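Write out structure tokens for Nucleotide modification associated domain-containing protein.
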Amino acid sequence: MKIVLSRKSFDSKYGGKPNLIFQDGCLLTLPIPGYQYVSMKNFKGDLFNPTEYCDIEIPVKIQKILKENQLHSLNNYAELMLKLFEKSSAKKIQKLKDRLTGSLLDDANRKPYYCHLDPDLIYENLRRINGWHGLFGPSPDYHKHLSNELKENDLILFFGTFRHIIIEEGSIRYAIKRDGKDLIYEGKHLIYGYLQIKKIITDSRGIEDWMHQPNHHPHLDEKLWNNRNRALYVGRNHLYLDGKRTRYKGYGTLNFSKDLVLTEKNATTRIWKRQLFPKGSIIKHKNIIISQSKWNRNNCFEWDSYGQEFIIERCPEFENHIINNIFKL
């Protein structure tokens, strides 16, 4: 089994803010904006509406936390994001708030604000019908390289930048230093979700089943699907590790623990834990080994901000960490 670390969701470049760690350990990722889409066509030429932030329902367990803290009106991601960013005056965030506000107006005045929900791992986020599985659509450029490496049963771990949030007196905000030493108040990289590959779809015949879902995956848009390096990775029903079926689904999100944090203690976001990634354990794609210079003088791997997918090879330290600490088998 090969392991890929894939960077997805909000960050300083795409979206402008970290993703959320609730105080009970629930993780919530924010999909990046999909500025380029107004309407979409699937590979058959049929029009469909892209997913908007206001289409995505907040998972029930997080809705419960919000309602317990007098935040009863937050039901979808657009409403949650507006509340979270309420006091932010940064130019980039103000533009995002304006567009979120426009998407929640009445029918005569509303302006849709689309997002790129990929990977799509949470059943309750959108309306589904029978047969839905977790899905991931790598960009054509990355699939071109990954296709030489990945096959069925390989494991993709999704990571992003996260901070704890504080809910108090009907408000929600990002944690700051004085909120407590056990909280992540500066953005840190951590693993939030996973997908074990059941099959890799690369032709239009294999995609038919996914066209019946009420909300199409963004990589079914003709702009992406008509690329020769197109692909859609479908998650397994159950997760298998070390040759054994586990109690976990083959795709999903995780609850926060320190074992999910990739960033080295007391280090900046992009410096990863040295005990997890010895020199030479991370490659970008087939036969291209990341330079030894990416490990600093403390033998910590320094994440390349332009890297999106990393293949982990010959790294028993990280494999054991996944089995024993992340999934606790």
